[in-house]
Structures are given as structure tokens and as C-alpha cells.
Amino acid sequence: MIGIGLVGVGMVAGIHARALEELRDIAQVRGVFDRDPLRLEAFCNQWNLPIAASFEAMLAQPDIDMLIVLTPPNARKSIVTAAAAAGKHVLMEKPVERDSAAGAELVAIAARGGITLGVVFQHRFRAASEKLRELIAGGTLGDLGIAQVNVPWWRAQSYYDEPGRGTYARDGGGVLINQAIHTLDLLQSYTGPVAEVSALMGTSKLHNMEAEDFVGAGLRFENGALGSIMATTAAFPGGAESIELGFTHAAVHLASGVLTVRYHDERVESFGEEANTGGGADPMAFPFDWHMEAQRDFITAIADGRAPRVTVAEGLLVHRLIDALVLSSREGRRVSLSELADA
Asked: Which residues form the Gfo/Idh/MocA-like oxidoreductase N-terminal domain (predicted)?
């Protein structure tokens, strides 16, 4: 039985708590900490979970093997440093940090401490996502030619009125690092790394916030495929994000948990079940199952002494892509990802 400490009880904490209920045969939450005592008490009462007297007390508990960290990214370095010193493995909600350089520092801290560091990219664990990975690996789709990402999400101004949200100091940016990061991570897990980008980003008239709520970009992948990205939180009332991939033998469309494959010989196949993905006014309008599978993988990885499917080192690939998109827009030029290879 793996003992878990939960750090932070903000917006996504309920999803994690619900998922952990389903994993009670392999893991148990043995302490929860948040800097807001009233919010902490309300959360633990709701989910019948034990309150840790302090973060330090949680680290000192010998029956806690790992932490699930749900704080904003600007709090990660101190938490991972302390966890590494205490020998506690860490699974973090996305993003890893505010940029790839800061994320790489966390990887180094974890390596020095001998702990496993993982990040939650739950979209990889959806049934349709897994099926597409299987089809690509099997070679039946052919070679990749084009890739298109569309993230037409909506967030009301009240979402950005929370102190720190949509700022560079706390979050590291806007729609790219907070919303589109999941789809961009999933994209590169299929296509391989992006080689260069040309981007335009900014804040629309629909939001008052520091960072971007819109980005459009062209991509060139290392394998020679071409692609595009459109991501926004200003597309009222919000819709499902999608990935479209064009191969030499078929075109695939992945959206709302459903994969559709249209072969050039006119065969059509569909996999998965339709589900909300949090693209509208309610950011938490999605199932807990995907988080549960991400948790299960990390928990069993700790128990079995293996690496999790998504390590932070791998998660930094999408952070480098985001850094390149931001740099391209700010400097008004095409940016090669090799410029960020040492980040």
C-alpha cells in the first residue's frame, strides 16, 4: 500500500480525491496540507481525509511514500526540494514549472535526491488516445504529413479575476501553459518533437489579463511534417479541443474522447466514448477516470521500482515548445527548438 500526501486543495483537488477513492486498494491518502486552513478543513471534511498539521509534518510521516502536488507552478521548487530531502516521490499537476529552464532545475533536484518526479498529462490515458498510439506504432496509417491542433476554449473574466491567474509570475503565462499544454503534449507524443515554430500570440479584447488568451502558429516537425496550432480561451461558449493528423494512408480526428479514422480506401473506424473536456465555462467539467489512470501508473511505478509513463524530463518537451512559441511571437521571427535545447 502506497501512502500519499496531498499538497494543495484548489480547483483540481476534488478530481484527484475522487480518483484516489477508486485506487484505495493500492494507495491511501495519509495527510493533506494547504496554506488556507479553512479551505483545507472544508476539503478534508468533504472527502473524509486526514489533515496534516503542516507541510513539514507531512514530510516527516514515515507512512507517506509520495506527494501529489496541486499548487500553482511558482510554488514547486521549494516543495520538490523538501520532498527530495525527505525521500518522498512527487507527482505534480501540469505545468511542471513556469518555463522549461525552471522545470529542468526540478528534474536535477529530483535526480540528486533519488526520487521519482512525474507530471499529470491525463489526456494520454484516455482510451481513444491509447488507440491512436497503437495505430501509429503499428504502421497501418502510413507516414505523417500534416498535424493540426485546435483548442477553442472559453473562460469567463471571473476565472482570471483570481489573484495570480493568467500572470507570468504565478502561472508562467496564459492559454498555452494552462490549457493548451495538454493537447500539445499529446500531439508530440504522436508526432515526435517540433523542430521550428512561427507564432503570433496576444490578449484579446474579451479578457483583462496579463498573459495571452490567443495563439496561432505554424509548425515544422523534426520528421518533416507540417502543422498548425490555434488555441484560445476567448471562444465563447467553448468547445472541445481536437487533434487532426494526416497520414499517407488515413486521416485521423481526435476530439472529446473519440477517435475517428478515415482511410484512403474509404473505410471509417471510430473508437472511444464522447466526454466533456473542460473547454467551457466550468473548467472541471470532465471525468475523473483519466486522472485515475495517471495516478495508477505513477503509484504502481513507485511500488514496482520502474519509471512512470510520463516523467517530468519527458514533460519538458512540451514546455520547450511553449517557450519557443512565446519567443517567436515576442521577437516576431521563426524560432528553432534547438535554440532551447539546453534549457
From this structure: 3-119
